[in-house]
Fold this protein.
Amino acid sequence: MISGADVNGRVLYQEGDHSFIWLGADPNLKRGVVQTNQYLIIDKGRGTLVDPGGVHLFSRVVAVVSRFININDIDTIIFSHQDPDVSSGIALWLGVTSAKIYVSSLWLRFLPHFGIVDTSRVLGIEDTASSLNLAGGNRLRFVPAHFLHSTGNYTVFDDASKIMFSGDIGAAVFPEGDEYVFVEDFDEHVKLMETFHRRYMAGNAVLRKWVSLIKSLGPSMICPQHGAIFREDTAGRFLDWLDGLRCGTDDLDSLYQMGKDV
Ligand SMILES: [Fe+2]
Ligand SMILES: [Fe+2]
C-alpha cells in the first residue's frame, strides 16, 4: 500500500553522485484520472526528468523534485511519447527550467499544440537507438519501443543503476485506493495489467522485439509510467509474460466486430 511518506518519493538507487528517484504518489488523484509515475535521475548534481506529466500534476511534481535538487539544475527532460499524461506540462517545464527536452522526432510538430512558444529546446530522437551522456559521465540509452503503444516511443535505460524506465509498457490500473509502489505478487498484479496491454500494445511481434533488447541489458528494476515498479525478482516474470502476450493486431477479429448502438 502507498503510505503517507510515499507522496515525497523514494530513492530507488544511489551510488556516489548518481541516483534514480521515484517522485511519489499523488495524494489528490481524482476518480477517472489515470495514476502516473514520474522519475528523476541525478548525475553529478544535474537532473534529468523522465515523463514529468501533465499540467494538473505540475505543482506537485515541482515540489517533490525540489526536495532532491534545485529546479535550476534540471538540464534534461525526456518524454517517452506524446500523450497528454506524459507531456502536456511541456510549456510549464520549459518556463521554469532551461532544460532541453528529448522526444521521438515523430512528435516534434505535434507538441506545440500543448502551447509551446519556443521550440528550440525541444529535440527529436531519431528512429534508431541512441544515447545521452550525463553530466557525471554516465549514460542513458534511448531504447526503441515503437508501437508499444505509441508509433514513436522510447524507453530509457540508465547504465549506472541498470534501471529501465519502460513508459506505458508495464502499466497497471489500480482499483481506487489500492495503489502500491512495488510489485510483490506477480500473479495478482498481472490482472491489473492485462486489459491495458491487450488493447494498447500493437502486437506480440513488437513486444518480443522489445523484450529481447531489454533482456540483453539485464535490468535491475523496470519502472513504468503507470502502476508499480518491478524489482529484479518480478522483472523477469514480467518480461516472460510480455513475450507470450497476444495483443493489438494479433486479434483483429474481436477488435473489428460491429457493436451495438452507442
Ligand atoms: Fe501513452
Ligand atoms: Fe501513459
About this structure: The pocket of fe (ii) ion (ligand 1) is lined by residues 81, 83, 149-150, 168 (CB under 6 Å). Residues 172 and 194 are 8 Å apart (CA to CA).
